[in-house]
Amino acid sequence: MKNNTRNTSQFTVAINQINNRKVLLPHVLYKEMVAFVLESTNPLQNIIVSKPTLNKINILKKAFLNDILLLHSSIKKLGQDELQLSVEVYKNSDNDKDIICNARFSLLLKEKYS
């Protein structure tokens, strides 16, 4: 089952999230994405039995101090035992194609759900 349901969130890159070149640290980006996946799937917590597992990540560009990053998620697959979410991270700019990162996460579902 495919679904185009999308969720959105944002965060601003802060001083404690960067290296000495003012570039966002990769582990911070990952933690923000995981928190976003958890928030996005909160309404489904009664059927989810695992924490998000990262299946694939592509870091395409750097983000810098004070950049506003937008996170979008969409359901890529809802199977009998697994939910797969796609997460895209964009810089908040006039150019909607300014993608910083994309990733795919999966979460296991309760057996009763199937």
Describe the fold and architecture.
This protein is 13% helix and 39% strand. The protein has 114 residues and is mainly beta. The protein has one domain: Thiol Ester Dehydrase, Chain A (Roll). Strands 1-3-4-5-2 form a five-stranded antiparallel sheet, with helices on one face. The longest helix has 15 residues, at 26-40. It is elongated. The mean pLDDT is 90.
Task: Report the helical percentage.
Answer: 10-25%
Written as H for each helix and E for each strand, in order along the chain, the element string is EHEEEE
What's the CATH H-level homologous superfamily?
Hotdog Thioesterase
Q: Which sequence of strands runs across the widest sheet? A: 1-3-4-5-2
Structural class: mainly beta
| Cα gyration radius (Å) | 15 Å
CATH topology title: Thiol Ester Dehydrase, Chain A
Provide the residue-averaged pLDDT.
90
The CATH architecture is: Roll
Reported for the largest beta sheet, the result is: 5 strands, antiparallel
